[in-house]
User: Which sequence fits this backbone?
């Protein structure tokens, strides 16, 4: 089996350093927040070129606290996309606000910027663009819209750590940036973790307070806060991995370029690249009109794949909304039927990429189009 990601290989590369980092935490016994978390926050802030970075226990918590810090609550609307992991939308509901969807661009899978302004109402308070699969959103038009309408921009950068838009790292471009360190992410935890990045000192102060029960001093909370603290062990591990992140990103890009070249003649659509944005390839996601058949045959050949994401959020029973129905977001709905993520990670070999690409060519090459169409 060629796995879609190989976390064991990553650990083998870093075993000595990770084991030492964990031992440091046990020696200090600072398991919640502590000096490792403080050091990682400082290093991550420098990495993103922002003054403030606040470690939390998940990317979901990061989004939740970002919305609260921005004053988003009941009666407010937040513009986002229906084609993303549903945590994006769930957190809008956590604060009592309403998600307003805008369709995506078929080429980038990101929000269709040309449709944002039409979705703004008197209740709109924020725009939450998602840098999906590791490709940055076209942020300048969004920032312009936000300035003209006095809106907050909260970047969901859960899948795009290290990506750049016109020389600026994702998460540092809007008012607040939110990151997930779920184990499969480019910078992944040995468990859970997240980060909020911002240039705004008041947002940083409020997020730092809310993540730890909003205690002004011990047992004296000033707000209804949360237990969203980042563990010291995770922070120590992140510090090891952060030192490798740029190198891992370059490896991902090199392997993606191999896929691009080898799949040129396949009956699939490869991920796009943009001149103003640097893709970090959290996922290498192709599109195929015969996606389900292709996935089944690749799995049978020992190649693990995944679908990110099979159902747009407005069509999920858990997030059913009387304002929306099938057909309202045709691009998102079409992409949900065609996307397929192939194996790609920093510990994958060029030979494995060639094997996967070869099998895709065999199964979905131009010469197989009629065969798949008849099945």
Assistant:
């Amino acid at each position: 089996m060629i796995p879609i990601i190989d976390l064991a290989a990553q650990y083998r590369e870093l075993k000595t350093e990770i084991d030492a980092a964990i031992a440091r935490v046990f020696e200090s016994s600072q398991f919640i927040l502590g000096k490792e978390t403080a050091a990682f926050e400082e290093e991550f802030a420098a990495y993103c070129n922002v003054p403030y970075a606040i470690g939390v226990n998940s990317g979901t918590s990061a989004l939740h606290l970002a919305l609260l810090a921005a004053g988003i609550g009941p009666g407010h609307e937040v513009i986002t996309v229906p084609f993303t992991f549903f945590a994006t939308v769930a957190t809008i509901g956590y604060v009592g606000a309403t998600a307003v969807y805008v369709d995506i661009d078929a080429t980038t899978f990101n929000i269709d910027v040309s449709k944002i302004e039409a979705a703004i109402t008197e209740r709109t308070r924020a725009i939450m663009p998602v840098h999906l699969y590791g490709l940055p959103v076209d942020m300048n038009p969004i920032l312009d819209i936000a300035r003209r309408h006095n809106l907050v921009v909260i970047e969901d950068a859960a899948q795009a750590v290290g990506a750049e838009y016109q020389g600026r790292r994702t998460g540092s471009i809007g008012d607040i940036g939110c990151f997930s360190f779920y184990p499969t992410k480019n910078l992944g935890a040995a468990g859970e973790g997240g980060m909020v990045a911002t240039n705004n000192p008041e947002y940083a102060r409020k997020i730092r307070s809310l993540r730890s029960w909003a205690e002004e001093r011990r047992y004296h909370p000033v707000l209804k806060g949360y237990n969203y603290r980042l563990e010291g062990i995770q922070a120590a591990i992140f510090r090891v991995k952060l030192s490798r992140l740029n190198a891992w990103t370059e490896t991902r890009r090199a392997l993606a370029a191999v896929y691009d070249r080898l799949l040129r003649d396949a009956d699939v659509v490869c991920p796009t690249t943009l001149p103003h944005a640097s893709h970090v390839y959290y996922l290498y996601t192709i599109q195929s009109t015969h996606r389900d058949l292709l996935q089944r045959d690749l799995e049978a050949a020992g190649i693990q794949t995944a679908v990110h994401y099979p159902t747009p959020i407005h069509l999920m029973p858990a997030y059913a909304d009387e304002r929306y129905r099938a057909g309202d977001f045709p691009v998102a709905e079409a992409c949900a039927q065609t996307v397929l993520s192939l194996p790609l990670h920093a510990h994958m070999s060029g030979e494995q990429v060639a094997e996967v690409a070869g099998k895709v060519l065999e199964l979905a090459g131009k010469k197989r189009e009629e065969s798949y169409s008849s099945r």
